[in-house]
Design goal:
Length: about 100
């Protein structure tokens, strides 16, 4: 499965900006500060996004590699789309917070 770092390295400037924005949604310190991104958490959440997108399709389809690639592409498109939304939150962070309540 592709990593957030690989997406950044392979992407054009718009993709790189979207990856940096996703990282910024996972600050090491308080969200209101200018803390450095927690790239470990951002990476984990990006992988989780891909897994959620794949769902059970990977189990149902014989072309697992194709399913993973399609999910990776959709996840990158999601980053690009979310990046254009002011003040968006990581969908995995939102889900985890909702599950705790």
């Amino acid at each position: 499965m592709i990593t957030l770092h690989e997406v950044y390295e392979q992407g054009n400037e718009a993709v790189k900006e979207a990856v940096r924005a996703f990282g910024a949604r996972h600050p090491l310190g308080p969200a209101w500060s200018d803390a450095e991104p927690d790239w470990k958490t951002a990476e984990k959440h990006f992988t989780h996004v891909i897994e959620v997108i794949m769902g059970t399709a990977a189990l149902a389809e014989p072309d697992t590699v194709g399913t993973v690639r399609r999910a990776e592409n959709v996840a990158v498109q999601l980053l690009l789309t979310l990046h254009t939304v002011r003040g968006y939150r990581c969908p995995i962070c939102v889900k985890k917070r909702r599950d705790r309540l």
